[in-house]
Every structure is written in C-alpha cells, then in structure tokens.
Structure to design on (298 residues):
C-alpha cells in the first residue's frame, strides 16, 4: 500500500502544517510582514501600496452592500481578531489549568496592564492639561503588544514560559482596555441593538459550552457569523469579540483515562487483525474501525 504522505497534496499540506505548529512560526511571519510593509511603504510603489490597502471588499445582498470594508480595515478587524482569538484560547487554558489558575498569579498581569495604560495617559495629560490636544490622552494608552509577543515566541524555549504567559495576559487586558476607551470616549455612533444581539450569541455559546456541545461548526457559526459580525457592525473593535468568543470555547474535557485507553487498545487490536485489500484504499472494515476510533476520541 502506498504511503499517503507521498501524495502530491500531502507533500504541500504536511510541510505547511509542520511550519504552523512550530512556536516560532508566528514571530517569523510577523517579522517578514513588517519588513515587506516597510519596504513597500518607502518604495516608488508606495502610492499603489496604500491604494491597494484602501480597496474595499464586502458582500451584496438585495443590492445593498454589507461589511463593505477596506483591506486595511479587514486586516485590523479580521486578521487581528484571529490573532487575539488564538491568544485568548491560550490565556483561557492557563487560567483553567496553568500558570494563571491561582488568583494571586492572575491579578499581577491585570494590574500591570492597567498601569501600562493609566500612567502614559497621565503623563500625556500633565503635558497637555488644556485645549484641543487634551482629547488625545487615549493615544498613548494603546501598545502594540503583538510585536513583543512575536519576538518572545521567535526566541522559543530560551524565554521562560511564565514570562510568555504573563505578557500574553498583559496583551489581552491592554487591548481590551484600549478598545473600551476608544468605544466609550472616542466613538459617537455605537449600535446598541447590534451589540445586544452579539451578546445574545455570546450567551448561546456559553450555554452550548455548559451543555457539553463540542461541535466546531456550532462555535464557528455563532462566533464568526454572530459575535464577531455583530460586534463589528456595532462599532466596537472586533478583537473584543474574538477574546470573548475564545473564553466561550470548551476547555474542560471530562474523561475516564482508563476507559479511554481500553477503548483505544480495543480498536487498535481490531485494526491490526483486519484483512487489508492491498490497494491504495481502505477496506470497509478498516473504515468502520477508524470511524469508531474517531467517535471515541470526541
């Protein structure tokens, strides 16, 4: 029987999957992207570069455009939302059964993030106590923590795990705080209706979590089609929706280890004695065993 890994599609997919699973991958992609952006922004093609970022993409329903946003906007509210969704999943894992599972350890990054927002704002106000420029106090509050995380993960195991977790928590709190400041002090048009419906979708995800729903499609539809979309339409930055949705994803897996091991051994034994057909495809018996193995793994 031929090796499935030798198929043309797997020769492309497997290396990509291996790259994505490496801890340093995110930092490498971020660094390369920054270098390319700097080169393009300062090149003779910078006008075309910025025009490309302003090109709008969206959907048309009954002749009306929806989510008709620029590529720049899609990056900020789409790709950054994915980034903070992943960060939120990592943070939840640490809160449930990791470095931040103890309240004493969890409170430190929260205090650090709040201090990192309040102190720069106070410094700004001390230099600009009056006039129109006083309204800019929220600008120094936001920090681009993604670069710090990218550098940390690029260094890999040379950086202590506790430092990575600490900075990840600071990133979440800092981003949420900065976005809330923008929402409450710098945004004049917030759709309460869209925000309320988005929160209802978030509650539905929470209920599904508590009821034991483990379907990826369920959380994808509610998270992307409901929470993310409606938060975006409400005028609040979509990264908040991404973090909140991440905390609704199930993290607790209740399983009897001995029962699970016994089931896996049973299926492996059946698969080892199943008659092969000496063809590139599996037999019906083998497919059935793999299907049962997949069900028991859920």
């Amino acid at each position: 029987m031929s090796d499935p890994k030798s198929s043309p599609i797997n020769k492309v997919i497997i290396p990509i999957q291996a790259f994505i699973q490496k801890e340093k991958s995110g930092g490498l992609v971020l660094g390369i992207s920054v270098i390319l952006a700097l080169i393009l922004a300062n090149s003779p093609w910078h006008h075309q570069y910025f025009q490309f970022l302003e090109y709008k993409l969206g959907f048309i329903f009954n002749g009306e455009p929806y989510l008709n946003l620029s590529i720049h906007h899609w990056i900020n509210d789409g790709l950054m939302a994915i980034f903070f969704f992943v960060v939120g999943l990592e943070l939840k894992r640490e809160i449930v059964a990791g470095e931040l599972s103890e309240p004493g350890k969890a409170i430190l990054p929260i205090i650090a993030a709040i201090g990192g927002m309040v102190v720069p704002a106070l410094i700004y106000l001390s230099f600009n106590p009056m006039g129109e420029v006083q309204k800019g106090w929220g600008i120094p509050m936001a920090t681009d923590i993604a670069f710090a995380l990218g550098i940390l993960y690029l260094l890999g195991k040379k950086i202590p795990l506790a430092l990575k977790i600490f900075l990840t928590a600071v990133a979440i709190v800092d981003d949420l705080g900065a976005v809330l400041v923008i929402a409450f002090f710098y945004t004049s048009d917030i759709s309460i209706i869209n925000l309320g419906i988005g929160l209802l979708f978030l509650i539905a995800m929470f209920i599904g979590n508590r009821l034991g729903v483990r379907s990826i499609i369920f959380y994808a539809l509610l998270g992307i089609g409901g929470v993310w979309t409606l938060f975006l339409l409400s005028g609040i930055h979509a990264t908040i929706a991404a973090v909140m949705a991440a905390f609704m994803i199930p993290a607790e897996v209740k399983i009897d280890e001995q029962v699970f091991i016994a089931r896996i051994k049973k299926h492996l034994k059946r698969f080892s004695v199943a008659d092969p057909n000496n063809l590139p495809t599996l037999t019906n018996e083998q497919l059935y065993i793999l299907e049962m193995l997949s069900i028991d793994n859920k």
